[in-house]
UniProtKB/TrEMBL annotation:
Residues 35-170 form the RanBD1 domain. GO terms for biological process: nucleocytoplasmic transport. This is RanBD1 domain-containing protein. It comes from Galdieria partita. InterPro entries: PH-like_dom_sf, Ran_bind_dom, RanBP1-like, RanBP1_RanBD. Pfam families: Ran_BP1.
Amino acid sequence: MSTVSTKEENQEQQEEQKNEQEDEKATLEEDYSVPFKPLVTLDEVQVTTGEEDEDVLYKNRSKLFRFDKQGSQWKERGTGDVKILQHKDTKKIRLLMRREKTLKICLNHYVNPNIQLEENVGSDRSWVWNAIDYADEVADECVLAIRFPNSEQAKKFKEAYDNARTFMEKLTKESDKSSQEEDKEETKVNEHK
């Protein structure tokens, strides 16, 4: 009978220890609720991106590469959303891409009607083109490649780019005509003097 009572006593002691440990945990959790007050209060700042006066004609996630002539290899320039933007006033269209997280510009140039996208060798989901890029705030002539997650998205980008190219070609012709007319008028005015 003494062994039975010892087992019962051991079980009771173990249950008491468990209860005590649970009580200790509960009190520890309660004790550590320290109020947090920030040292500095930050005001919300309105950030201007330069895209406020532009309409988004196309937007999709992609990865951009630049061909390094010295190393004869492609170097990744960034991953993020590539956008085709049209300015509301001037109607000019540009390509813009910002890196994810940092939002640093890795692609920024106007769509040139003379530059066509070429299919990247061996891939149906990437395009290659030459451009004078202003991503680093200095004009840089470079070969760029853009890769999309699938071929369908790559085709949609190509369509949007070709539409932008066609529009820019018309816009360029219109501005050339108007500048030629202005030159003719200026010549007439100078002849009458």
